[in-house]
Amino acid sequence: DGLYIIQPKEEPIVVFCNMQDGGWTVIQHITVNSTVDFDRTWQDYKYGFGSVHENHWLGNEYMHQLTGSSVQYILGIKLVNLNAEVKWGQYEPFLIEGEESQYRIRVGLYKGNATDALTLDTEAYLHDNQKFTTKDRDNDNYFMNCAKLELNGIPGGGWWYDACAGANLNRRNVIYWQKDCNKQRPCKFAWMMIKPIEHHQPYPAKACPCQKVEL
Ligand SMILES: [Ca+2]
């Protein structure tokens, strides 16, 4: 585990890699009642905020640069409740489209022991295909701006809202993941992480530098 410099496009960026759980690049981390404010503008969510070894949002632009390449990615969700019980979920594939598409999210098939909160079977709560919404840019399907809706005085923050959502990991006081994390069952930590989909290699790839075969 630790900090790494990666270069998804021109600009090098610092990311936190979670190696113990299998080699993931962390794109979001929140601790309940974090001092990092997640009630931010479009521009803040675009390039990220917080500190990468603690609570942070990596940035929609970087999420797009990483997942929008020719390599397909998996989204991993890790949730820890107050009893230190860990829940996992993952979506394959996972993709964030570019700013011209308002950083629309695409999520594929789910597996894990957490609730499938991003594709919850409720008409108003689908995440797949939703654009990103912040307090200063309302792209959601609700008559108000979901990012501004408050719970105990804390707004929802930026997210891929529908009208509004069965999950939101960016509300600072209540980490929300449908049945797993909510007001009644509080969670302490959440992470969003990504990694490339591994294509099965039938033969060891690192035999080179290769000896010329004498026939
Ligand atoms: Ca709206």
Description:
By secondary structure, this protein is mainly β. It has one domain (2-195): Alpha-Beta Complex (Gamma Fibrinogen, Chain A, domain 1). The protein is built from two helices and 13 strands; from the N terminus they run E-E-E-H-E-E-H-E-E-E-E-E-E-E-E. It has helices at 42-47, 60-67, and strands at residues 2-6, 13-18, 24-31, 49-50, 56-57, 73-81, 86-96, 105-112, 150-151, 154-155, 167-168, 176-177, 187-196. The strands form three sheets. Strands 1, 2, 3, 4, 5, 6, 7, 8 and 13 form a nine-stranded antiparallel β-sheet that branches. Strands 9-10 form a two-stranded antiparallel sheet. The chain has a two-stranded antiparallel ribbon with strand order 11-12. The longest helix has 8 residues, at 60-67. The mean pLDDT is 92. Bound molecules: calcium ion. Calcium ion (CA) is lined by residues 138, 140, 142, 144-145.
* CATH-defined superfamily: Gamma Fibrinogen, chain A, domain 1
- Large-scale geometry: globular
Provide the low-confidence segments as ranges.
none
Estimated radius of gyration: 18 Å
What is the CATH topology assignment? Gamma Fibrinogen, Chain A, domain 1
Tell me about the largest β-sheet. 9 strands, antiparallel
Give the tally of structural domains.
1
> What is the CATH architecture assignment?
Alpha-Beta Complex
Top CATH class: Alpha Beta
Span between N and C termini?
Answer: 46 Å
Q: What integer is the average pLDDT?
A: 92
Helix and strand pattern? EEEHEEHEEEEEEEE
Helix content: under 10%
Strand content: 25-35%
Q: Look at the helices and sheets and give the structural class.
A: mainly beta
Bound molecules: calcium ion
- Helix count, per DSSP? 2
What is the number of beta strands? Answer: 13
